[in-house]
Specification:
By secondary structure, the chain is an alpha+beta fold. It has 2 domains: 111 residues, no CATH class; 75 residues. It is 38% helix and 20% strand. Helix 2 packs antiparallel against helix 4.
């Protein structure tokens, strides 16, 4: 399962939007496609470029974290005036810090959730494989996971060998899905609905063991003999 929070080297725009703010060394950091920096350093640059002349420019680089936060959230934030660039920067700073902290919480949650989810999926997969090998009945959801969803990843995407399309009936196309488990091949026969209103159906509630065979088929055809051609 793809996690929302990820430290990827080559981010897409969507991934960057979810990961542009993060926590590093106990403080909020910002990153884009080219660089990353402490969020306070980014804010210092924006203040120098956009805030009308102030006497703070000589002191802003020397402010400690507490002084800088007090200036942004108390002095600038107290203006509550959308026409003021200082207030806009204060809102941006508050949102950036919040994004970084929320991302850190989400990161912890996803690490715990995905680890538990992977364990649960492995247990579920092992139980289904055991049912297949012992010839036990499979539920319709399990058959759907094995025969149909394996074509699109799912629990058994890595076990899929082939999906064989056979003859069409009126409402179904007969299909056989071949799966491999520990060098053993198993088949499931099912019907693929031929209309959007027709659901897939499963002809048996068990998978059966198969072996791979190869056949040579001879096709007889007739070629045209051109006039004057020696046919002997």
């Amino acid at each position: 399962m793809r996690k929302i929070v990820d430290d990827v080297k080559d981010m897409s725009m969507c991934e960057l939007a979810d990961n542009c703010m993060f926590i590093k060394n106990g403080e909020a950091w910002y990153r884009n496609f080219n660089e990353e920096m402490p969020f306070r350093d980014l804010m210092r640059k924006l203040i120098k470029y956009h805030v009308p002349s102030e006497d703070i420019y000589e002191d802003i680089d020397n402010m400690d974290a507490e002084q800088f936060d007090d200036m942004m959230l108390t002095d600038y934030g107290a203006l509550a005036d959308w026409e003021s660039i200082e207030f806009v920067l204060a809102v941006f700073y508050m949102m950036g810090c919040g994004m970084a902290e929320v991302r850190e919480w989400l990161k912890e949650y996803e690490e715990d959730y995905c680890s538990k989810g992977e364990i649960d999926m492995n247990i579920e997969k092992a139980e289904i494989v055991e049912k297949i090998k012992t010839g036990k009945e499979l539920t319709e959801d399990e058959l759907e996971e094995l025969a149909y969803k394996s074509q699109h990843g799912g629990l058994f995407g890595d076990n899929l060998v082939e999906v064989i399309k056979r003859e069409n009936q009126r409402w179904f196309r007969n299909m056989t899905t071949i799966l491999e488990f520990n060098n053993e091949f198993y088949a499931i026969d099912w019907g693929e609905g031929l209309t959007e209103f027709q659901e897939n159906c499963y002809w048996s509630d068990k998978a059966y063991k198969v072996r791979k065979t190869e056949r040579v088929i001879t096709i007889t055809d007739y070629e045209r003999i051109e006039e004057g051609e020696n046919t002997k």
